[in-house]
Amino acid sequence: MKIWRDGSEQTIEYKLPEADFRKSIIPEQCYDCPPEYFVAGGLVFQPLTGPLLRSLGQNTPLLLDYYEAHPPIGERTGLILLSMILPDDYNRGYESARLLLIDEINGREINCLKDVKTALEETDDGYHRIRFMPAESIIHMILDAEELPATTHRILERYRIPKQSFMNPLQNKD
Prior knowledge:
By secondary structure, this protein is an alpha+beta fold. The chain has helices spanning 50-56, 62-69, 113-119, 148-158; strands spanning 2-5, 8-11, 37-40, 43-47, 80-85, 100-105, 108-109, 127-132, 140-144, 165-166. Strand 1 and strand 2 form a beta hairpin.
């Protein structure tokens, strides 16, 4: 690389460090990888990423813009979004919910898609409780845990979704 120092041009050797976007709470880029997702009961969960935010363009909710500029402080390593709901009798009443950041599912803090999957595998009282981040338009959702597996299977078939999830091992943070 050529630089200008002390009034003259100098040549120095410098190797640029490789960018690791996985270290950011909202990864700016996700190269060579399809979008990650997890579908459960028609709810479509996705990690909040720079490419996803850019795809929303001017339709980006104000709260997502805020989180991009001011990520939450604390132990959080990632943000998961309820990006949309595929309508079904199971999720009736919630079908218009979209682009909401998840705080907890069944009392477990959610940082990645693996956390969503793990949290939905257990429940204490037969219901799944999804709590959203403060200031979201919806505070929480309550879904029947017993019906979730059959509903998910039905929705995957109805909407011709080949797999319940895609979780890139290179992108997931443990």
